[in-house]
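Following up on my earlier message about FE2/S2 (inorganic) cluster. Here are the inputs again, as you asked, copied directly from the submission form:
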Amino acid sequence: MSDEPHGLDRGLTNYGDRDFARFLRRSFARSMGISPDLLARPVVGIAMTPSDFNNCHRTMPELVEAVSRGVLAAGALPRAFPTVSLGEVFLNPTSMMYRNLMAMDTEEMILAQPMDAVVLIGGCDKTVPAQLMGAASADLPAIQLVTGPMSTGRHRGERLGACTDCRGYWARHRAGSIDAAEIAEVEGRLSVTAGTCAVMGTASTMACIAEALGMSLPGTAAIPAVHADRLVAAEASGRAAVQLIATKIRPSQVITENSVENAIRVLMALSGSTNAIVHLAAIAGRLGIRISPERFNQISDETPVLVDLKPVGQGYMEDFHAAGGMGALLRELRPLLHLDTRDIEGRTLAERLDEPGGWVDRAVIRPFSDPVSPVGGLVALSGSLAPDGAIFKRAAATPELFESEGRAVVFTGLEDLSRRIDDPDLDVEADDILVLQNAGPHAAGMPEAGYLPIPKKLARAGVKDMVRISDARMSGTAFGAIVLHVAPEAAVGGQLAAVRDGDRIRLSIRDKRVDLLVAPEEVARRMAGFTPPPMPERGYKALYRRTVTQAPEGCDFDFLTHRGAPRTP
Ligand code: FES
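Thanks, got it. Here's what our run produced:
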């Protein structure tokens, strides 16, 4: 052990007398009934996120207990502490608005409290990105542990899991093929265990990305929340955190340009959530790493979709785990990966993949030679409607809509959308393009409103997909021909603000473009009268609006992105 302060002696409270500060801290720590022997040991912090408003974190108490067991068994003192917890469906206006708050809380509490390493326990969509962002900036040795996915339920002989099936059943209810009594039955059968959404949505994608980056223990991303192995993984994470105190491996050594590229490969092969692009940009941005849209598309075009899970395919996360999980996927992707990246245990990816793999269910994790799709699930778009970029999930869209030109039907904001989308008098046809403005990060915190519902009168006529364009996000569990994350957003004067009903728009996935077919002079004339929405005057929302960046920068706060060397605690 070096002479640097460690354990409870780190970061003493400022009283102007260090010895008094140490004496007082130890005295108060004794009041927790901990022996002097344990108090003298290295400390592993456990960032826990239980909340009665977060169903996905229901198992947090037993996970904290298992991590603590691992820490104690390896000879250190575990200290759990709370941070903000974000339950996706319990937050208004959208959990995305609070991801940066949780990231700040995580970073500051890691640095302000006396710990030598930290285990971060998260799961629901925004929590893992927030914890990784905070850990990257704090740059103290850290391990990510996820709560794990839900297991599936059953309804009239069909297997169900949140939340692709939530959307599928709701769309059938809107179209009139499922009545109120049946949808009430389905409500109780979609989310039947603790854990995160059961498909390859944002939470599952981010769990896999955390492992691909090297920030989680190998093989832990997909273990179901209620499986005994989830607790074994928690105990192992506690032990590994104690090892980290000795090796001093920091997030900035694990999250590198190469590991971020590996994570993008995994995202493509999973056909993962579009939200993960924003989160990964924010995590990488904390360390000054940026992947260009051109490189993103190159990776997408080179990387096949290998995992057959909803919302794109058939299976659920429990199937992915049983099929071999991330280890099996990484072995298939091996020729495309940077093998020199190191994980939190200090092993290179090559060393991990050199170990013998187990049995693989090829119905769920396909061989490289027989992919679900020969190209990745996501593409970055440019064009006159999205000069700074947009995202399209080609794996989850109707291929017949990839090359489309249509008439714009414009909604000026979320209220306008909910007021008029089902109006029987709405002038809309199946080959029109639905456009939603003012739902970007600055205007609205970038809610998951990009999955605009098919207008009821078209849904009842059998229309299942349409081109939809917005500056919003969409749930990782959703699907459709949907252009998202248009940047710059409408509320900061992006071209999206200039679109009017009846304008022609062209989408070309082949050319990776989305264009507004209106003369530039006319666009300039329309934008001459542009006024940004009023700014909130106080509190977190004012901070958010003043400092949030656009989607390509990860919607982080501008003052939290990387400036120079990482902070040293
Ligand atoms: Fe938490 Fe889906 S609601 S992961």
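One observation from looking it over: The mean pLDDT is 95. Hope that helps, and feel free to reply on this thread.
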